[in-house]
Amino acid sequence: MEPVVLRLATPADVAFIMATERLPDAVAYVSRWDEARHRAGIDGQTMAYLIGARGGGEPEGFAILGDLDERNGNVLLYRIVSVRPGTGFGRPFLAAVVDWAFRNTGVYRLWLDVVAGNARARHVYETAGFAFEGVMRQSYLTVAGERVDLVIMSLLRPEWERMTPGR
């Protein structure tokens, strides 16, 4: 399998990002932002929008990192979405995003929240080294209007360093 190549998103990627976060497989688990919020995030200094593709080809997913200026080094992985879940892209894409974050920002603690019922994503995060921290009870309102729990997970810089030989 070709390696996942990351690049920073540009305003021209907003349509791809918005379409991807609205795919049927993503709707139950991924928040959706409007065009203005995505453009502000791409243009701002506190977020990093990453586009992933195998071998640098057509975009297959995107990730959003936020709070890059948080003084304690707590960077939030707002979202990571694959165009075609279940095709083997998600794990190497997540690994590339994690490596990018630790190599290119001052992150000490990379954290995320995931819908408690999203077993596939939770498993991928666990295999990438993210640890369970807790549950935010009924804190996410789905597009169907249902309240569900979010699981908080994180990966610390020393943990990433131990998992990344020759970093």
What does this structure look like?
The protein has a single domain, classed as Gcn5-related N-acetyltransferase (GNAT) (Aminopeptidase, 3-Layer(aba) Sandwich), CATH 3.40.630. Strands 1-2-3-4-5-7-6 form a 7-stranded mixed sheet, sandwiched between helices. The chain has 6 helices and 7 strands; from the N terminus they run βαααβββαβαββα. By secondary structure, the chain is α+β, with helices and mostly antiparallel strands. The longest helix is centred in the middle third of the chain and has 15 residues, at 90-104. It is globular and about 45 Å long.
What ranges have pLDDT less than 50 throughout 5 or more consecutive residues? none
CATH architecture classification name: 3-Layer(aba) Sandwich
* Helical residues, percent: 25-40%
Count of all domains: 1
Trace the largest sheet across and list its strands.
Answer: 1-2-3-4-5-7-6
Main sheet attributes: strand count, strand direction, barrel closure: 7 strands, mixed
At the first level of CATH, what is the class?
Alpha Beta
Structural class: alpha+beta
The span between the termini is 22 Å
Oligomer class: single chain
Shape: globular
CATH fold-level label = Aminopeptidase
Please tell me the overall pLDDT. Answer: 94
Counting DSSP E segments of at least 2 residues, the number of strands comes to 7
**In percent, how much strand structure appears in the residues?**
25-35%
Our Rg estimate from Cα atoms comes to 15 Å
Order of helices and strands: EHHHEEEHEHEEH
Number of helices: 6
CATH homologous superfamily placement: Gcn5-related N-acetyltransferase (GNAT)
